[in-house]
Design goal:
The chain is of the alpha/beta class. It contains 8 helices and 17 strands.
Length: about 325
Amino acid sequence: MDNILVIAQIFDGQVKKSTNSAVTFASRVGSFIGGSYSIMALGDDLSGQTPHLSRLGAQRVILAEAPGLDQALAERWVPIIEQVVRKGSYKVVVSPSSSTGKDVLPRLAQHLEAGMASDVMDVSYEGDKLNYVRPMYAGNLNSTVQIPTEVEVVTVRQTEFDPFEAVAQESPVEMIEVPPPPEVLERIEFNDFEKSISERPDLPDAQVVVSGGRGLKSGENFKIIEELAELFGGAVGATRAAVDAGFIHNDFQVGQTGKIVAPELYIAVGLSGALQHVAGMKSSKVIVAINKDEEAPIFQVADYGIVADLFKAVPELIEEVKKLM
């Protein structure tokens, strides 16, 4: 019996790695409550993604194809997902805690009159109830919550669940009939989706992240951050202060109101360590901080700290890394 529904995340024709992490969560929940999971994908043409989705151990893969579904508008997606949930026997609906998940699932929860836990970091089972661990107060506290409704809606942090590894056996694929667009879409116009193009890995997927803060003083100075990240084959990140100052595009923001990352190595350059930023990177395996203020809060979470002028320390670090290559 498939009683867990995973909403796949697809971007630029590729299944996002966060989908595999959501599947890992679903697999764990399935082992607790008995049963299995299905994966649902929505888009214009899903033929290119079906082979990937069908090897993620699901009971079945549900495809909803129609013009405009690749725009991921919550107003369009929710009635389709709701129809599948109501016709099935789903107890848990899960999505990665991405911008799409944060947009679609709260609306879905309202339609289903279901409780919701967002940004879930862990799950356990006790007394026939699922217990979800999620952060509070910018990550300073973790709370354990239960959802008392018949259907439970959840978004999960990609960084807290290892990506599900593909299996050899392929899941059956089911194409569903898509209902006509709701009337509300007559008042909505999708104009464009602006994306940043980079040869570097996406922030949530990167093994190394080099982030800069307001201490870099200008967008031009972010070049040294980019150069250091390039040497490690890593991604570039930034604080909200740097984004608000116009130094870099907000796609690169790391933090509670940005992207959550947990790379093997996180290098924090010229950033103080504000709570909302630390909430988005404190799960990194090794944190290195470079700041001339020895009292900066970032040193409290750093494994290694360099108290120095970043404009001197970072170029020296770049030269030392080059010697090792």
